[in-house]
Design goal:
Elements lengths: L8 E3 L8 H12 L7 E3 L7 H12 L22 H4 L1 H4 L1 H18 L43
Protein name: Oxidoreductase putative C-terminal domain-containing protein
Pfam families: ox_reductase_C
InterPro entries: Gfo/Idh/MocA_Oxidoreductase, NAD(P)-bd_dom_sf, OxRdtase_put_C
Length: 153
């Protein structure tokens, strides 16, 4: 592979939609390569000059660390016209496709997390409460063309 040959790689996400165990095993194998190659994923926010300034402000602050992180996309939900983003089987759905940018940004600004526990909930489109239904999926995305079991809010 390129990494074993010592070539640094810049890759796009999703890096993988494989089960966690497979990805963990692959990551462990890469760490053992020892070629000194750098692998980076295309998370765009960390390359914006504004976040370099934010990082400098954090470092110069009284605590020198981030105490809380809140991120939000401010965009017209109905204008997101990329069918790929809405399909679990293609991109992992909106969490993998878009929300991971915030995970990367929080790590870039605040460093690696120290977690005692982590809980996540994903409501499928057919959740009986209706909470997982997309109320305003863009008209350019034919929701009926996405198999029900592969729809994610």
């Amino acid at each position: 592979t390129l990494l074993r040959a010592g070539a640094s790689c810049f890759v796009e996400k999703p890096v993988s939609l494989a089960p966690t165990e497979d990805v963990t095993a692959y990551a462990a194998a890469l760490e053992g390569v020892g070629s000194g190659a750098i692998t980076s994923v295309g998370y765009m926010f960390r390359y914006a000059s504004v976040f370099e300034r934010v990082r400098a402000e954090i470092a110069a602050s009284e605590t020198g660390r981030v105490l809380a992180f809140l991120a939000r996309y401010n965009c017209a939900y109905a204008a997101i016209d990329h069918p790929f983003w809405w399909r679990e089987d293609k991109s992992g759905g909106p969490i993998v496709e878009q929300a991971t940018h915030f995970v990367d940004l929080s790590r870039f600004l605040a460093g690696e997390p120290v977690l005692a526990s982590l809980t996540g909930v994903c409501l499928p489109a057919d959740d009986p409460t209706g909470a997982g239904a997309l109320c305003d999926i863009p008209p350019v995305v034919d929701e009926a063309a996405i198999p029900r079991e592969l729809r994610l809010p």
